Amino acid sequence: MKPLTVNARDVVQWLHQAQAKLEDARQPAISNGTRMDAARDAVLLSCMAVACAQGWRVTSDRGHHAVALEGAAHALAIGERRFDELDILRDWRNRKYRPGYVVETEELNEALDWVAPFLADVATWFDRQHRGLIQRGVAR
Fold it and tell me: From 70's CA, which of 83, 90, 92, 135 has a CA 20 to 30 Å away?
């Protein structure tokens, strides 16, 4: 991560994009692999919003997905178990490039059961910690 001036508009855009990705992940007409990608993206975009609100930018350096999740998990105090669940999605991202790997419906449903509450927790955190920032971002 690198220091960044807090930008309310960017935070709101990251949050909107995360919610849109969650909605994409819920679409049964789309392949399970694409839906899993969208679920993972929803988590990453939420983590980027949390980092941005705290004055950080997630870089594209090696390990940036893990760093983003660790930072958000710490800020939200989500606990080790929930962190590990969300981190499984990062592991999935790395496995998807192996030949023959497919996402089973049960695996996707489990991921959605983890992602939706995480996005709700992020929204609650913003409401409690950065309500004014969100209001400024929406007003722009």
Answer: 135
